[in-house]
Please model this.
Amino acid sequence: GAVPPLPPPPPLPPATTEVAPWAELGGGSADGPPLQSGKARGHGGGERMRELVEAAPPEFRCQLSGRLLLDPVRSPVGYVFERAELSRALGEGRCPLTGQPLLLADCPRDPELRRRVTAWVRQQRAQQSAQPSRLACTILAAGASSEHGPV
Model:
């Protein structure tokens, strides 16, 4: 028989800037850590991280939490989750979206999706570093208007 189509996923929750620790993901490889926390990056990192996560395409975000996918796994029916989020949500051995029986072992990692997310993050960071942050633009604009006075 034909396999019924996937039900549409629920709407993504609001983006969060929390990221999984890369140490447990084997960071440092060619696919290395695309993100660091704002605290690790210094001034302005939190704002830029938030902007980055909020701009992430839906296919790069966990269908359960809305977080950026750093260690994506794919369920047998095609849903994509952040591995740590799915692990926490599988307390009763059921898919949090479908309610069907599901084990973490049934959800293989998706290295190709991880590479695509990593490439997207690097591209976004390159664009961000080429442009000043919104805060810097606001400060520059305020300085320019007060320096020259009203026209």
Q: What stands out?
A: Strands lie at 72-74, 80-82. The helical segments are 38-41, 45-55, 83-89, 111-130, 134-148. Confidence is low (pLDDT under 50) at residues 16-43.
